[in-house]
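thoughts on these tokens:
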Amino acid sequence: METSTEGASPEEGAVAGEAVAGVPAPATGESVPGGTVTEQNVPERSVPHVPAPVVARAPASLSPSRAGDFMQCPLLYRFRVIDKLPEKPSEAATRGTLVHAVLERLFDAPAADRTAPRAKSLIPAQWDRLRESKPEVMELFADDPEGERLARWLSEAERLVERWFTLEDPTRLEPAERELFVEARLDSGLTLRGIIDRVDVAPTGEVRIVDYKTGKAPRPEYAEGALFQMKFYALVVWRLKRVVPRRLQLVYLGSGDVLTYDPEIGDLERVERKLLALWDAISEATETGEWRPRPTKLCGWCDHQAVCPEFGGTPPAYPLPVRAPGSGAG
């Protein structure tokens, strides 16, 4: 699922429930490290959504996107999770959603038909579905009456889809799962959830978790941060099935790079400890109402500058009860 630089994911609104059941039969395609988990609920990006009244609730689960929000800026986390402030669609995030939908749907076709021309031919229908389910995306091209900018934007989506065929061969892949919703409750009580773009299964039963990114690969010194989301998913799968995925794979369509990592139990235990510490900090901020902004270069892209103290704004009234000073936790 698109995370970090390409906008908020749909993970936070996914349906709770038992997300992973049994192990699927080994795939008959490419003999590579693959994956195994079966969905109970898989929310699609393009399912129409009927807006409901916004009701503030204390956070009850953690996804990679929301964990990333809190690490980037606690106040941003509050705006998105508790206040649920609206955000404008972005061209990058919307293009990412479109490309993801195309790559997911391509696997509906027989292996021999999974070609670049067929994939590109899926773009118009998937764009129509996206507009129907999220009419707000048309705001992106409201000042484009001749459709020239939209045409360039769609052409870039085509280029990203074409580049994928230079990185992977879909005729040799039979994904066990696509857009898989996973959820696990840790012994601490923390619930982790997310949506995995693709899960592969090797004939030997090895697990591979794959995520598509429509941006460019990070520099080597930032690779660890990029892998955080994948280790998060690996932790969820391990806690659910007691199986450590053999490989984590990030496919960067923007730059044509593939980043892989083979996790070990020690890696996942460290990620779990980090998430527990993160959740303690989120719980403390939830109870006290103290959500501090953390200024970075990313502030320039934030939709919430008008209500951010760093830009002279005032956050909306905190909608949750706060713990009285000196009363202690709990």
